[in-house]
Each structure stands twice: as structure tokens, then as C-alpha cells.
Amino acid sequence: MDTETVINAHYVNHLANVNNKKKVVATENIYNQFGALLVPKGTAIEHRVHDFLVGHKMKKQLDEFITVDGCLTANSLVAEFNKLLALFPDLQQIHQCIDFGQMLEHLCSVQQIPRILLQKLTILKLQLPTIFEQTLFSTWLGCMLAKEMKLSPQHIRNTFYVGLLHDLGLLHIDPELISKQGSYSDQEWHSVKHHMMISVAIAKLIYPFDEEVYRGIKEHHERCDGTGYPKELRNEQLSYSGQLIGLADIICHIRTRQYQQSGKSMANIMPYIQINQHSFKYESYQAMYTLVQRAELEISDLLNRKDFLALPKRLILQRVRITQLHLAFADFVALFPKETKGKHSKALIESCEHIGDTIKRAGLNSPETLDWLESISDSDFNDARQELQELDSMHYELLWQFKKVFRIIPDFLQEELPAKAKLAPQLNAHAETMQQNLLQAWTDYQ
Ligand SMILES: [Fe+2]
Q1: d(CA 196, ligand 1 centre) in Å
Q2: Which of 94, 121, 246, 280 fits as disulfide partner to 220, beta carbons 3.0 to 4.6 Å?
Q3: Domain 74-295 has what CATH class?
Q4: In the predicted model, what is the mean pLDDT of residues 42-54?
Q5: How far apart are the CA of 205 and the centre of ligand 1, in A?
Q6: Boundaries of each HD-GYP domain copy (predicted)?
Q7: Distance (Å) from CA 220 to ligand 1 centroid
Q8: Could you tell me the distance, in angstroms and rounded to a whole number, from the CA of residue 304 to the centre of ligand 1?
Q9: Whole-number Å distance between alpha carbons of 58 and 267
Q10: What is the domain partition of the chain in residue ranges?
Q11: pLDDT tens for each residue of 131-155
Q12: Is the pLDDT of residue 93 over 90?
């Protein structure tokens, strides 16, 4: 465990901003590691004291020496979970259907949540409210999935802590990066990718949690098919808690942002689950499927009669684009030199197979599907609209799969393709064309 911690500038800024709304005060003298007084007891942590604190090393973390007015408690944390669920009737329905309220209260209260964790969550709530909402969502869903999978009470508790802790590291990186729209530079991406390790360091200073908690935090952006980060680990190398919180994070993003804009609910999540089943532990997908099925949610019907006939036409075009993308991807991996045996090439080859399997299994490129799409007329509105919307969602998820997998290509080309490989120029050109084709396919969904 680290014995010293450096006071982080972004975190002190967050504290000073919070102090504008709720008092943040030093409860005792704050000294650096050499015993020099930085800030006396009773001082408000405002922007004025920023320079006295930042960059100094301490034996404990800053949070141990401060209090925040109106800090979350176990009871108010339960209230925050309930407030979130009240915003989304479909989540509420799932929650009530499996009677999760009691377990959630139990998790929040039976073993005291460390004061510093509650304090950090309070800062997160006030300074990065979207990340706080995501933290609650992922903790709630991750624990429900763990319960559904019949994991032991200790595993469920560890998943609860992985959920609460996993993104606290974001409080220690530049907030502009967190809200940035568009792609990151290499250096920015490096900082963002580092947040799991900061969260682990914070967790270690808060409480001696089980090893599984630190491991879950580290792994929450890893994916079972090797397409995650930072280590591109694979299924057998990954723990349950990190994968449950990782899956819950993605579902949170889909439900609270993507679906919120389009009016969809958790009932529409099935195409995502079907297409992405290789990315997370298989049991967690089964659990997700069961949760949604059991709640008997009604699928939102978003298609009106006026737009109905445009959909099969768009699906026919998308179908061609997806098939071509997959063929180009298959040609690309077929060109890999025999001596290429790294983790990037392995992930690319397997992902190409998975995408091919999914397309085949769902009949997306079958002649029957094409005949059906071409035969749809206005009179099919009642019978066909739900199936068409599901097909549309599957196309959308497949394009996400391509997007996610293609992110690995630059690393493969740089790190695993021998510089003198004869096929290097061909592979580079091929990769460029695939990226352009993917962009083109996305235009329909903008
Ligand atoms: Fe994260």
C-alpha cells in the first residue's frame, strides 16, 4: 500500500468549488510529510488555499483532515438510489419485480460505509453529477446481476464497493477531459485510461477492502473478448465484479443517454445483449436477460405510420453496408502475416469471427430477410413494425461492434505488424478504407 499521497490540483479545485455551496473545512492542522504546516485547523478549503496544498506529499489522504457540510450518510445514499430509480419507471419496475429494495438498504447500512468514501461520493455528486448518477446506476445494476447470478453475499458486497469506488479517480483528472466531446489526443487518452489506477489508490487509502474490490476496479474497462483496456485481458483472466460493473456502466450509458433521447426503455436492451454477449461474462448476460424478461416491460413503440416505409428501405441499405464491412474485415485479418501472434491480432481475428457468427445467427444477411424487407407494404404496419425496430437496433449495435474493434487496429499496425512485412502497405490501406466505410455507415444514425 502507498505510504504517501500527493495532493492533486484537480481534486483541490473540486473541494474549493464545493466550498462555494457547502462548507469544506479542515478539521485539524494539515501537515505535509516533513511535518510542515500547510493549512491550520478550521480553515475553509477555498481557492485561496489551493497553492498551499497542491503538490505536497502527505502520509494520509487529504479527505481525512476535512469535513464537508451535508455529507452523504448511509440513509441519504439509499435516498439517492431511490431518487435515481424514480426518474426511470422501467428501472423501478425491475427493482420492484425482484424486490431488491431490502438488499440495497442492507448493503448501505449493515456494514458501515467508510466516512471518507461517503465524503468522496458527496464531492462527486456536487462536482460531476453525471458520473455520480452513473456510479449509482452501475452499483445498483451490478449488485442486482450478482444476486441474480447467485453469487455469495461477500461477492455481492464486493461488487457494491467496486460500483461505488470505480470512477472516483475521475475526480483527480482534468474535468475538461471528462466532458470533452469528440476524440482524445494520445496524451489525453493516456490520462483518461489512468483513472482506474487512481481509483484503486484512493480505495486503498480509504479502507482495507478485499483484493477482489481492487481487482474489480482495475478491470472495469476490460472486456472478455480482449477488446478492453488497459491490459486487454480476456475472459479467464477477469473477475466477476469488474465485469458486472463494466456491463452496468455500458447499460447505464445506453439507458440514461442514448435511450433517453430516443424514448426507449430497458425493454429495448435485448439487441444489445444479443450482439455483445462475447464482450462480458456469459452468465452476466443471462442474468441481464432474465431480469428484463421477468419485469415484463413493455417495448416502446417509436415508429409512426408516416415514417414506417422508410425503415425497411434504410435497413436494406444498412444490411449491404454491414455485410461489406464484415467481408472487408475478414479480408483484412486473412492478410495477417503468419508470424503475427500478439494480443491485438488475436482480438481482431476473434472479433471478426464473432461478428460473422452474429450476422449469420440473426439472419441479417440471409436472402429470406431481404425478401421480407422488400415485401413490406403499408398494410404491414401493425405486424412488422416491432420486428423492424429490433432489426434496426441490431444493425446499430453491430456498427458499435465494428467501431469498438476498429479502435484496436492502429495498435495492431504499430505494435504487432513487423515493420518489414511485405503486406504492411496493403494492410494500412485496407484499414483506412474500412474506417471510411464505417464512417459512411454511421451517417444514417446521426
Ligand atoms: Fe471508468
Answers
A1: 6
A2: 246
A3: mainly alpha
A4: 94
A5: 19
A6: 109-305
A7: 6
A8: 37
A9: 49
A10: 5-68, 74-295, 305-445
A11: 999 999 999 999 999 999 999 999 9
A12: yes
